[in-house]
Structures are given as structure tokens and as C-alpha cells.
Amino acid sequence: MADETKHMDYLNDVCSKDILNLQLKESIYQGSWKKRGGVGAFMMLARKWDRIENMLTEGHFDQDRWDIFTEITRKPNGDDGTMLAEIRDLRRYLILVEAEMMARGIVDSQRGNQDVKEDSNKHAFQAEEPIHSGDKMGPSGISSTGFYNRQNDRDRFRNK
Q1: Phi-psi region for residue 143, left (φ > 0), alpha (ψ -120 to 50) or beta?
Q2: Does 82 share its domain with 149?
Q3: What is the domain range of residue 136?
Q4: What is the pTM of this model?
């Protein structure tokens, strides 16, 4: 069985390339991604997701549909128009959104992710507390109902 955490060895490489790419693109486009405000930024993210979804479903038989690893394997070079290029673009736009919220003083850049702490004994990250009351944390630090609670989060946010 392959090492299930081998991908962690590549995080610094992925993130440092994201930073270099974002710095280059921002020097050219100078914030055009946020020109139309938050709704425009969301629509930009939605278009990227739509593109990924279309690439996974167009012309594929059922056994291949939704298999993002297989799709990347077909064209792993990351050239424009490939699945890997779309994933990179989406991830980088998400980074820009969070950085923008820090620049506006909405998100505290000094706090980082308040839901993780470094466990110096294990050199791993674990959640400090459940996101929702009643959640049980798994060994990965992801709550047992985390995925399904996203709708509850949206509803709670809208009702404030």
C-alpha cells in the first residue's frame, strides 16, 4: 500500500508556486478579479468550479465520471485547458479572496486558522474543538458531521 500521506511532502512546493504565480498575475491584472465586488468574486469562483465539473462529466462513461485523479492523469502537464490548470486557478482565486479579507481588516492575519493547533509531540495538526456542538472529532481533526453542517452554517449566517 502506498504512503497515504506522501502528498504532504509536496505542500510547500504547491504553495510556493501559487505565491509566485499570484504575484506575477497581480502585477499584470492588478486586482481585476475583485473589480465587481464580492458578487463578482464569487461568480469568478463559480465559473472555475463549473469548468471543473464540465470537464469531469463531458464525454465520460459512468466509471470515469467524477474521477478527478483520472482526469488529471490524462493530461498531467497543467497546460491551459487541463484539469490541473483549472484546479490551480480555483485554488489561487480562493487564496486571493482570503488575502483580500485580511487586507480589509476583516480577517485577522495573525490568528491564522483558529481551528488548528500544532501538536508538537506528533508534528501533526489537530482541531482544537468541534466546529459544531455535538460533533465528534476524528483522528484527522475533521468533525463527523462537518460536510453536512455547511448548510447549517449558511442558514445561521443568513439569519444574523
Answers
A1: beta
A2: no
A3: 117-158
A4: 0.66
